[in-house]
Amino acid sequence: MIGLPHTNQKKQAIAMYHTTGFSHDEVIDLCVIINSTEPDASASKWPRCLGLFKSVVAALTYMRHNRTQAEIGESFGVSQPTISRAVSAITPRIPAALAEYVPTADELDPEVQYIVDGTLLPCWSWSGHKELYSGKHKKTGMNVQVVCTIFGKLAWISDPVNGSRHDNYCLGESDVLRTFDPKNWIGDKGYIGNGMITPFRKPEGRELLDWQKEFNAEVNKIRWMIEQVISHFKNWTIMHTDYRRPLNTFETTISAVIGLHFYRMA
What we know:
Layout: H1 4-20, H2 24-36, H3 51-65, H4 69-76, H5 80-90, H6 93-97, E1 114-122, E2 133-134, E3 139-149, E4 154-157, E5 161-162, H7 167-174, E6 185-186, H8 210-233, H9 250-265
Parallel strand pairs: 1-6
Antiparallel strand pairs: 1-3, 2-3, 3-4, 3-5
Protein backbone atom coordinates (compact mmCIF):
# COMPACT_ATOMS: atom_id res chain seq x y z
CA MET A 1 0.00 0.00 0.00
CA ILE A 2 2.93 2.34 0.62
CA GLY A 3 3.81 2.41 -3.08
CA LEU A 4 0.30 3.30 -4.29
CA PRO A 5 0.49 7.10 -4.02
CA HIS A 6 3.75 7.15 -5.95
CA THR A 7 2.25 4.84 -8.56
CA ASN A 8 -0.83 7.04 -8.91
CA GLN A 9 1.33 10.16 -9.27
CA LYS A 10 3.38 8.43 -11.95
CA LYS A 11 0.22 7.43 -13.84
CA GLN A 12 -1.10 10.99 -13.62
CA ALA A 13 2.21 12.37 -14.93
CA ILE A 14 2.16 9.94 -17.87
CA ALA A 15 -1.46 10.81 -18.61
CA MET A 16 -0.64 14.53 -18.55
CA TYR A 17 2.21 14.00 -21.01
CA HIS A 18 -0.06 12.21 -23.47
CA THR A 19 -2.69 14.92 -23.05
CA THR A 20 -0.53 18.05 -23.21
CA GLY A 21 2.81 16.95 -24.65
CA PHE A 22 4.53 18.06 -21.42
CA SER A 23 5.35 16.33 -18.16
CA HIS A 24 3.86 17.53 -14.87
CA ASP A 25 7.09 19.30 -13.93
CA GLU A 26 7.37 20.93 -17.37
CA VAL A 27 3.83 22.28 -17.04
CA ILE A 28 4.73 23.74 -13.64
CA ASP A 29 7.82 25.41 -15.17
CA LEU A 30 5.63 26.78 -17.96
CA CYS A 31 3.19 28.17 -15.39
CA VAL A 32 6.06 29.95 -13.62
CA ILE A 33 7.23 31.52 -16.89
CA ILE A 34 3.70 32.63 -17.83
CA ASN A 35 3.00 34.04 -14.37
CA SER A 36 6.27 36.00 -14.34
CA THR A 37 5.66 37.59 -17.75
CA GLU A 38 3.96 40.97 -17.78
CA PRO A 39 0.60 40.42 -19.51
CA ASP A 40 -0.81 42.66 -22.20
CA ALA A 41 -3.12 45.38 -20.89
CA SER A 42 -6.09 43.73 -22.61
CA ALA A 43 -5.27 40.24 -21.32
CA SER A 44 -8.04 38.47 -19.45
CA LYS A 45 -7.54 36.51 -16.23
CA TRP A 46 -7.81 32.74 -16.13
CA PRO A 47 -10.88 31.29 -14.35
CA ARG A 48 -10.51 31.26 -10.55
CA CYS A 49 -12.19 27.87 -10.31
CA LEU A 50 -9.39 26.34 -12.39
CA GLY A 51 -6.41 28.39 -11.31
CA LEU A 52 -3.29 28.86 -13.39
CA PHE A 53 -2.09 25.25 -13.52
CA LYS A 54 -5.36 23.71 -14.71
CA SER A 55 -5.96 26.61 -17.09
CA VAL A 56 -2.58 25.97 -18.71
CA VAL A 57 -3.31 22.24 -18.92
CA ALA A 58 -6.68 22.99 -20.55
CA ALA A 59 -5.09 25.33 -23.10
CA LEU A 60 -2.29 22.86 -23.90
CA THR A 61 -4.81 20.04 -24.29
CA TYR A 62 -6.86 22.14 -26.67
CA MET A 63 -3.85 22.97 -28.85
CA ARG A 64 -2.31 19.52 -28.69
CA HIS A 65 -5.45 17.62 -29.70
CA ASN A 66 -7.97 20.24 -30.91
CA ARG A 67 -10.60 18.62 -28.70
CA THR A 68 -13.88 20.45 -28.26
CA GLN A 69 -13.98 22.72 -25.25
CA ALA A 70 -17.06 20.92 -23.92
CA GLU A 71 -15.14 17.63 -23.93
CA ILE A 72 -12.18 19.20 -22.12
CA GLY A 73 -14.63 20.73 -19.64
CA GLU A 74 -15.94 17.29 -18.76
CA SER A 75 -12.39 16.22 -17.85
CA PHE A 76 -12.13 19.11 -15.37
CA GLY A 77 -15.70 19.02 -14.13
CA VAL A 78 -16.41 22.54 -15.44
CA SER A 79 -18.52 24.05 -18.20
CA GLN A 80 -17.49 24.75 -21.80
CA PRO A 81 -17.52 28.55 -21.22
CA THR A 82 -15.04 28.09 -18.37
CA ILE A 83 -12.64 26.20 -20.66
CA SER A 84 -13.17 28.88 -23.30
CA ARG A 85 -12.14 31.56 -20.79
CA ALA A 86 -9.07 29.53 -19.81
CA VAL A 87 -7.97 29.08 -23.42
CA SER A 88 -8.65 32.76 -24.18
CA ALA A 89 -6.62 33.86 -21.15
CA ILE A 90 -3.62 31.55 -21.51
CA THR A 91 -3.07 31.41 -25.28
CA PRO A 92 -2.19 35.12 -25.79
CA ARG A 93 0.28 35.00 -22.89
CA ILE A 94 2.34 32.17 -24.37
CA PRO A 95 4.05 33.97 -27.31
CA ALA A 96 5.51 36.69 -25.06
CA ALA A 97 6.35 34.24 -22.29
CA LEU A 98 8.30 31.94 -24.63
CA ALA A 99 9.71 34.58 -27.00
CA GLU A 100 13.31 33.87 -25.94
CA TYR A 101 12.98 30.27 -27.13
CA VAL A 102 11.77 31.17 -30.64
CA PRO A 103 14.59 31.96 -33.11
CA THR A 104 14.20 34.94 -35.42
CA ALA A 105 15.32 35.14 -39.05
CA ASP A 106 18.30 37.24 -37.96
CA GLU A 107 19.57 34.34 -35.86
CA LEU A 108 19.94 31.97 -38.84
CA ASP A 109 23.55 31.17 -39.72
CA PRO A 110 24.62 32.42 -43.18
CA GLU A 111 27.22 29.62 -43.32
CA VAL A 112 24.64 26.86 -42.84
CA GLN A 113 22.71 25.22 -45.68
CA TYR A 114 18.97 25.28 -45.04
CA ILE A 115 15.91 23.58 -46.47
CA VAL A 116 12.66 25.53 -46.65
CA ASP A 117 9.06 24.61 -47.36
CA GLY A 118 5.67 26.14 -46.75
CA THR A 119 2.73 24.46 -45.09
CA LEU A 120 -0.92 25.39 -44.79
CA LEU A 121 -2.46 25.59 -41.32
CA PRO A 122 -6.16 25.03 -42.02
CA CYS A 123 -9.19 26.79 -40.58
CA TRP A 124 -12.92 26.87 -41.22
CA SER A 125 -14.04 28.07 -44.65
CA TRP A 126 -14.92 31.65 -43.72
CA SER A 127 -17.14 32.90 -46.56
CA GLY A 128 -16.06 36.49 -46.04
CA HIS A 129 -12.34 35.73 -46.22
CA LYS A 130 -11.51 34.50 -49.70
CA GLU A 131 -7.90 35.53 -49.14
CA LEU A 132 -7.49 32.46 -46.93
CA TYR A 133 -8.38 29.99 -49.70
CA SER A 134 -5.45 27.98 -51.06
CA GLY A 135 -5.99 26.78 -54.61
CA LYS A 136 -3.14 24.31 -54.16
CA HIS A 137 -4.65 22.66 -51.09
CA LYS A 138 -8.33 23.34 -51.92
CA LYS A 139 -9.00 24.62 -48.41
CA THR A 140 -8.71 27.75 -46.31
CA GLY A 141 -5.98 28.54 -43.84
CA MET A 142 -2.73 30.41 -43.28
CA ASN A 143 0.71 29.66 -44.68
CA VAL A 144 3.91 29.49 -42.64
CA GLN A 145 7.41 28.94 -43.97
CA VAL A 146 9.42 26.31 -42.11
CA VAL A 147 13.23 26.13 -42.26
CA CYS A 148 15.50 23.32 -41.08
CA THR A 149 19.13 22.31 -41.54
CA ILE A 150 20.08 19.54 -43.94
CA PHE A 151 20.40 17.34 -40.83
CA GLY A 152 16.74 17.87 -39.95
CA LYS A 153 16.99 20.36 -37.09
CA LEU A 154 14.19 22.92 -37.03
CA ALA A 155 15.72 26.38 -37.32
CA TRP A 156 12.92 28.90 -37.92
CA ILE A 157 9.19 29.30 -38.59
CA SER A 158 7.83 32.45 -40.21
CA ASP A 159 4.85 34.54 -39.22
CA PRO A 160 1.63 33.34 -40.90
CA VAL A 161 0.49 34.73 -44.26
CA ASN A 162 -2.92 34.37 -45.94
CA GLY A 163 -3.34 30.89 -47.44
CA SER A 164 -4.04 32.19 -50.95
CA ARG A 165 -0.41 33.25 -51.31
CA HIS A 166 2.21 31.01 -52.91
CA ASP A 167 5.29 29.83 -51.01
CA ASN A 168 7.67 32.10 -52.95
CA TYR A 169 5.56 35.15 -52.05
CA CYS A 170 5.38 34.11 -48.39
CA LEU A 171 9.14 33.61 -48.21
CA GLY A 172 9.64 37.03 -49.77
CA GLU A 173 7.26 38.63 -47.28
CA SER A 174 9.30 37.19 -44.43
CA ASP A 175 12.39 38.98 -45.80
CA VAL A 176 14.45 36.05 -44.55
CA LEU A 177 16.66 35.89 -47.65
CA ARG A 178 17.53 39.59 -47.54
CA THR A 179 20.90 38.95 -45.90
CA PHE A 180 21.46 35.33 -47.00
CA ASP A 181 22.85 33.78 -50.16
CA PRO A 182 19.89 31.86 -51.66
CA LYS A 183 22.35 29.43 -53.29
CA ASN A 184 22.76 27.88 -49.84
CA TRP A 185 19.04 27.18 -49.57
CA ILE A 186 17.07 24.22 -50.91
CA GLY A 187 13.38 24.25 -51.80
CA ASP A 188 10.78 22.64 -54.03
CA LYS A 189 9.58 23.91 -57.42
CA GLY A 190 7.47 26.56 -55.71
CA TYR A 191 10.66 28.54 -55.08
CA ILE A 192 12.00 28.51 -58.65
CA GLY A 193 13.24 31.91 -59.73
CA ASN A 194 14.86 33.24 -56.57
CA GLY A 195 18.29 31.62 -56.93
CA MET A 196 17.72 28.70 -54.57
CA ILE A 197 18.57 25.07 -55.28
CA THR A 198 15.31 23.62 -56.61
CA PRO A 199 14.25 20.70 -58.81
CA PHE A 200 13.97 21.31 -62.53
CA ARG A 201 10.48 21.95 -63.84
CA LYS A 202 9.43 19.84 -66.79
CA PRO A 203 9.73 21.95 -69.97
CA GLU A 204 6.67 22.30 -72.15
CA GLY A 205 6.73 19.84 -75.02
CA ARG A 206 9.56 17.56 -73.84
CA GLU A 207 10.75 15.37 -71.00
CA LEU A 208 13.53 16.25 -68.59
CA LEU A 209 16.98 15.10 -69.55
CA ASP A 210 18.34 12.09 -67.67
CA TRP A 211 20.82 14.18 -65.68
CA GLN A 212 18.00 16.58 -64.72
CA LYS A 213 15.90 13.68 -63.48
CA GLU A 214 18.82 12.44 -61.41
CA PHE A 215 19.36 15.93 -60.02
CA ASN A 216 15.68 16.20 -59.07
CA ALA A 217 15.81 12.84 -57.33
CA GLU A 218 18.81 13.93 -55.25
CA VAL A 219 17.19 17.25 -54.30
CA ASN A 220 14.00 15.48 -53.26
CA LYS A 221 15.98 13.07 -51.08
CA ILE A 222 17.41 16.05 -49.19
CA ARG A 223 14.01 17.79 -49.00
CA TRP A 224 12.61 14.77 -47.19
CA MET A 225 14.11 16.27 -44.03
CA ILE A 226 11.85 19.34 -44.08
CA GLU A 227 8.78 17.17 -44.61
CA GLN A 228 9.63 15.26 -41.45
CA VAL A 229 10.19 18.49 -39.52
CA ILE A 230 6.81 19.87 -40.63
CA SER A 231 5.12 16.58 -39.76
CA HIS A 232 6.60 16.77 -36.26
CA PHE A 233 5.39 20.36 -35.85
CA LYS A 234 1.91 19.27 -36.88
CA ASN A 235 1.81 16.80 -34.01
CA TRP A 236 0.04 19.81 -32.54
CA THR A 237 -3.32 18.72 -33.96
CA ILE A 238 -4.67 22.25 -34.02
CA MET A 239 -2.08 22.99 -36.73
CA HIS A 240 -3.39 20.37 -39.16
CA THR A 241 -7.13 20.27 -38.46
CA ASP A 242 -9.68 23.04 -38.94
CA TYR A 243 -9.29 25.86 -36.43
CA ARG A 244 -12.67 26.43 -34.74
CA ARG A 245 -12.16 29.50 -32.56
CA PRO A 246 -12.82 33.04 -33.87
CA LEU A 247 -10.64 33.88 -36.85
CA ASN A 248 -9.10 36.90 -35.13
CA THR A 249 -7.48 34.54 -32.60
CA PHE A 250 -5.89 32.25 -35.20
CA GLU A 251 -2.58 34.10 -35.64
CA THR A 252 -2.12 34.31 -31.87
CA THR A 253 -2.74 30.58 -31.53
CA ILE A 254 -0.22 29.85 -34.29
CA SER A 255 2.36 32.00 -32.48
CA ALA A 256 1.58 30.20 -29.21
CA VAL A 257 2.07 26.76 -30.76
CA ILE A 258 5.33 27.86 -32.41
CA GLY A 259 6.55 29.07 -29.02
CA LEU A 260 5.54 25.83 -27.31
CA HIS A 261 7.14 23.74 -30.04
CA PHE A 262 10.52 25.46 -29.72
CA TYR A 263 10.22 25.45 -25.92
CA ARG A 264 9.84 21.66 -25.96
CA MET A 265 12.96 21.40 -28.13
CA ALA A 266 15.08 23.54 -25.79
